[in-house]
Amino acid sequence: MAEFDRVWVGARLCTMAEGLGVVPDGAVAAKDGRIAWVGPRAALPAHGAPEVDCGGAWILPGLVDCHTHLVFGGNRAAEFERRLAGATYEEIAREGGGILSTVRATRAAGEDELLAAALPRLDALLAEGVTTVEVKSGYGLEFEAERRMLRAARALGEARAVSVCTSFLGAHAVPPEYRGRQGDYAAAAAAMIGPLADEGLVDAVDAFCERIAFTSAETAALFERARARGLPVKLHADQLSDGGGAALAARFGALSADHLEHASGEGLAAMAAAGTVAVLLPGATYFIREERQPDIAAMRAAGLRMAVATDMNPGSSPARSLLLMLNMACTLYRLTVEEALLGVTRHAAAALGMADRGVLAPGMRADLAMFRVGSPAELCYWMGGNPCIGRVVAGRDA
Ligand code: NIG
Ligand code: FE
Which stretches are annotated as coiled coil (predicted)? Predict the structure, then answer.
C-alpha cells in the first residue's frame, strides 16, 4: 500500500512536464507537502489516504507570478490621467514623477501600512491560483525604506499561504537627494546588498538598466557585488530602448531578463546560451502603450524559455490578474496557449531559480491550482472572471 497523505482524483491535469502534459483522467497524491505520485487514475497505486474528487476540474501546478512590485505606497491614477491627456511615461519620469512619486509615498509609509496596502493586491493574485510570488523593493531608494519594503514582502508570506521570493531593486531610480550624482547612488545601492542580505531579506538582486535609470557599467558593478555575495541576479532590460541589457544579464548568468521589448537578436541569443529566462510583461507594454513588442520569433528561434508575469506596479502595469496577462501574452505577443501556460508555471519557476515547483511531478512541492474550465485554452481566452476553484499549498487547502 502506498503511503500518501491525500489524493486528488477526478481531475484533468496539465502537468507542464512536457508541453502541457495533459492527463485526461488524472490523480495527484501528496505526502509531507510534496507530490508523491501523479498520473492516470487507472494507474494510481492502492493507498489508504483520503481522496478528494475534483469533479472534472483542471489541475495545474500552482501558478508563479515571477515579477511584481506588489509593495508600494499610494498609486499613480493622477499620472495615468496625465498620460491620457498626452504625456508619456518617460516624460513624466524625467520630470521627477513616475517612480519617484511612488518613492515619496512609500518613504512616508510604515511597514504595517505597506503590508496592509499590499495584501488586497496579493489576495487578488492568490484568488486566481498563484502559490508563489516574487516581490521587489525599489521604491525606498534609501536603506531603511528599502528594508521596510523587503520586510513587508516577507510579512506577506507569513500572512498568507504563498511563497514569497524577494528581489532587491535598490537600483530602480536615482532618488532626489542624489540628483546629479547617479554614480554615487548606484554605489550606495550596491552597498545595501550586504546588510539587507545579512537580515535574510534578499533572494535575488535586480536593477533597471535604461537611459532613464542606470547604465550598463553601473549595473555590472552592482551585479559584481551580488555575485560576491552569492546572490542570483535579474534585470529590467531593454524595456524602453536597447541598452544592451539582455547581453549584460546573460554575461552575469542572470536568472531572468525582463521586458525585452527592444532587446537585440544578439542579446536574446546570449540569454539563450546562458540559460537566462525571458520574462514577458504584456501588462506594461499595454499600459504604457509601448509600440514595440518583444521579438517572440527570435526568442523561439533562440530556444529561450519565456515566462509571463504581471509586473504588478503602480506606474507601468497596475495589473492584479495573472490570468489576464495570459490573455494579453497570447493576444498582444501571439504566444501559444502552451507557451503562455508554461510562462506562469515551469518557466516562471525557472525565472526565480526554484527547481522544486512549476511542474506536477514526484518530489515537487504539492502546490496546485484548480480551475473549472473546459480546456486549458480557456485559461488564456477569458478576459476577466475567475475560474479558479481551489489552491493547494504544500499539500494543504489554502
Ligand atoms: O517594471 N521598469 C521599471 N520598473 C517598473 C515600473 C515601475 C514604475 O513605473 O513604478 C516596471 O515597468
Ligand atoms: Fe518591473
Answer: none
- Give the helix/strand (H/E) hosting 259: strand 256-259
- The three cell numbers of residue 123 are 489576495
SS3 148: helix
Question: How far is Cα 196 from Cα 41, in angstroms, rounded to an integer?
Answer: 47
- The amino acid that residue 232 corresponds to is P
Q: Which residues pair with 122 in a beta bridge?
A: none
Ligand 1 pocket residue status of 316, Cβ below 6 Å: yes
The rounded percent of the chain whose pLDDT value lies above 70 is: 100
* Whether the CB of 137 sits within 6 Å of ligand 1: no
**101 Cβ closer than 6 Å to some ligand 1 atom:** no
Q: Which atom of ligand 1 is nearest to the CA of 259?
A: 1
Q: CB burial class (10 A; 0-12, 13-18, 19+) of residue 212? A: middle
Which ligand has the minimum distance to the alpha carbon of residue 283?
1
CA angle 285, 113, 349 (to 5 degrees): 45
Point out which residues pair with 28 in neighbouring strands.
Answer: 8, 38
What pLDDT sits at residue 181? 97
Fill in the amino acid letter for 281: L
What is the C-alpha to C-alpha distance for residues 19 and 220, in angstroms, rounded to an integer? 35
Residue 384 cell numbers, joined: 476577466
Neighbours of 220 (CB within 10 A): 16
Cα 69 to ligand 2 centroid, rounded to whole Å: 6
User: pTM here?
Assistant: 0.98
pLDDT tens, position by position, 176-227: 999 999 999 999 999 999 999 999 999 999 999 999 999 999 999 999 999 9
CA-nearest residue for atom 11, ligand 1, is 316
Annotated binding-site residue numbers for 4-imidazolone-5-propanoate: 76, 139, 172, 239, 316
Dig out the grid coordinates for 39 from the structure.
Answer: 498520473
Q: Which atom of ligand 1 is nearest to the CA of 258?
A: 1
Residue 169 near residue 71 (C-beta atoms within 8 A): no
